[in-house]
Every structure is written in C-alpha cells, then in structure tokens.
Design a protein that fits this description.
Alpha-Beta Plaits; binds iron/sulfur cluster
Length: about 325
C-alpha cells in the first residue's frame, strides 16, 4: 500500500467541507447535499460524471439523503467541488452543526398532510444554510414527516416535524349509528361510538385525518392542518425517543420559529459534547418546552449567536 501523505490537520480541514477519508488511503468520499433527497436528472448526470472523472465511479446514498462519491484523491477535491457546483450542488453535512434535513415523500404520498419537500427546503435554507457557521454542542438533526406513519422517524431526530390533520367533529350531526363508518376508518381505534354518539379519545388520536369525510351524515367533514413537533430524539450508540410538545402548531411560521428557538437553546444551554436529548434531560422537558413556546430565545438571538461557545463540538462524523 502506498504511504499516506495527507496530514491529520488536512484530513480534518476537508472533513469540515464534507470529504471523509476512505480508510487506509489518501482518497476521500465527497458528501453531496441533496437538500431533501430530491435531485434533478441533470444533477444526477453531473454526479455520475463527477464519480467517473474524479472518483472510483461509485456513488453511495446515506441514510440522511446525501450522496457520496467515493475515491476522490485529496488534490482533486477543489476541482470536484467546482465541477458539481455547475449544477448547483455543494458538499458538506459534517460537524457539530445543523445537519442535512431528512424528509419523507409526503408531498406526493397519498397519506401526506403537508408538503414535505417544500417545508424541508425552507428548513434547509433557513437552518442548514442559515446556521452553517453557528457552532453547536453536537450535531443537530431535523426530519420532516408528512403524516403520523413516521416513515422517516422524525421522533428519532433531535427535532422532528410530523404533519397533522385535526378532525373537526360536529356532534349535532352524529346519529350514533350501529355501524359507524368513522369508527371503522380509524386505524388507532381512537374514534368509537359510546352511548349513542361518536367520541374521539384525544389521548389515542394521532391526528392522521383518516376519518375526515368518512361519515355519511357529514359529522366530520373537515380538519385543521397542523404540525406536531418532537424534540430530543436520537439514534445511534444511545437511543432516545423524542417527546412531542403539547401544542400542535397550525401556523407554519410558528413551527419554523420553534425550530429556531430549539437550535438557539441548544447552542446557549447545551454543554459541549452532549446531544439535544441530554440537554433536555438535564434542563427538564417542561423548562425546555416553556422556553420554546415563549419568545425570549428569539429576542436574545444575536446575543446567543455572538457568544464564543462550542469552538470544538462533540460530533465525530
Ligand atoms: S410518513 Fe406518511 S406522508 Fe410520509 S411517506 Fe410515510 S405514509 Fe407517506
Ligand atoms: S360519526 Fe357519522 S357514521 Fe359515525 S355514528 Fe356519527 S353519524 Fe354515524
Ligand atoms: S384523526 Fe386518525 S386517529 Fe384520530 S380519530 Fe381520526 S382516524 Fe382516528
């Protein structure tokens, strides 16, 4: 095997740019950000050409919807970046920062309750790009799921959003039918006819909206779209299920502001090296929720961003 020539310092420098060393070699995998797992045919062609021109011809897909081109020699890194930039593609996605956003295909999925590609693109612009120079105690992963089916496991991310449709039940239209079609349509058995009237048990209902339009007497004709937000999930060496904030947000702006507040809180109150789950555990969920629902963190945004914190974060990949 040829002697390795890239210094540890240079390896670290290019890692921060999204180039991960291929073990035992002087070559690197270039991690390309897809924004939300959606790339054009022209971008795919460009990645394929770049893989043949600069790498070993292999393209791999990561669990967080990025694309890695393997086998790029150290001295070809800048050229590779310039080549993919022609199609608007960039590398990155490493370090103790907001990581690439993961989204399910809720925009086109029959169960989708929100435009997951559109929302994740907004999150990407505002928090992946917008917070790219903001150092955090550890990595911060965000996922957007179109409905409570949880295909992209939003509750196993530092912050996860799940599309909601809250059924609006008109009691006056309910006849307490022997065979209730709403009851039959509810996958969680949250809707049941009790004492001659339909009841929805809010402690079971996950706002999937599947019951809407199912009553032949129009007792559930409509529903309000919303966003449920989970905080403090993580996967990996230590697993933690995120916990949902008690409020279901019906305004997109408000939901986006909660994400920003969560990042600011993590930066300000997280200890270097800990994941958000641990920060929440230390501070207490109720305390964190209270801060995320008030405006204090956003009012102090500049002060939090200006502080000298987490100069070396805890992320190792
Ligand atoms: S989470 Fe829901 S909307 Fe997203 S892909 Fe799965 S079923 Fe479809
Ligand atoms: S919700 Fe509709 S189908 Fe169900 S019991 Fe009431 S009227 Fe009948
Ligand atoms: S929203 Fe979903 S879980 Fe809730 S009552 Fe309707 S079908 Fe059942």
């Amino acid at each position: 095997m040829a002697a390795l020539t890239v210094s540890a310092e240079d390896e670290k420098r290019v890692k921060a740019m999204g180039f991960l060393n291929n073990k035992g070699t002087d070559n690197f995998s270039g991690r390309i950000i897809t924004v939300n797992g959606k790339i054009t045919a022209a971008q795919q062609r460009c990645i394929a050409e770049a893989a043949e021109k600069f790498g070993n011809g292999i393209v791999t897909f990561t669990t967080r919807l990025t694309v890695e081109v393997q086998g790029i020699p150290y001295d070809k890194i800048e050229e590779f970046q310039a080549f993919i930039a022609k199609e608007g593609l960039v590398t990155g996605g490493t370090g103790s920062l907001v990581r690439p956003v993961v989204a399910c295909k809720g925009t086109t999925c029959q169960y989708g309750l929100l435009d997951s590609f559109g929302l994740s693109e907004e999150i990407h612009k505002r928090f992946y790009e917008g917070y790219h120079t903001v150092k955090l105690p550890h990595k911060f992963k965000i996922a957007v799921g179109g409905c409570p089916n949880n295909c992209v496991k939003p509750d196993l991310n530092d912050l996860g959003i799940i599309g909601q449709r809250i059924p609006e039940f008109d009691e006056d239209s309910c006849n307490g039918c022997k065979k209730c079609t709403v009851e039959a349509a509810c996958p969680l058995k949250a809707a049941r006819v009790v004492d001659g009237i339909l009841e929805i048990d809010k402690s079971i209902c996950n706002n999937c909206g599947r019951c809407i339009g199912k009553c032949r007497f129009d007792a559930i004709e409509d529903g309000v779209y919303g966003y449920k937000i989970y905080i403090g999930g993580r996967w990996g060496k230590k697993i933690a299920h995120g916990r949902a904030l008690s409020k279901v947000f019906t305004s997109k702006e408000e939901a986006l502001d909660v994400i920003e507040k969560a990042i600011l809180l993590f930066r300000e109150q997280g200890e270097t090296g800990e994941r958000f789950a641990r920060t929440i555990e230390r501070l207490g969920f109720e305390n964190v929720e209270k801060q995320l629902l008030s405006n204090d963190l956003l009012e102090r945004k500049q002060e939090i961003l200006d502080a000298k914190l987490h100069l070396v974060g805890g992320a190792t990949c």
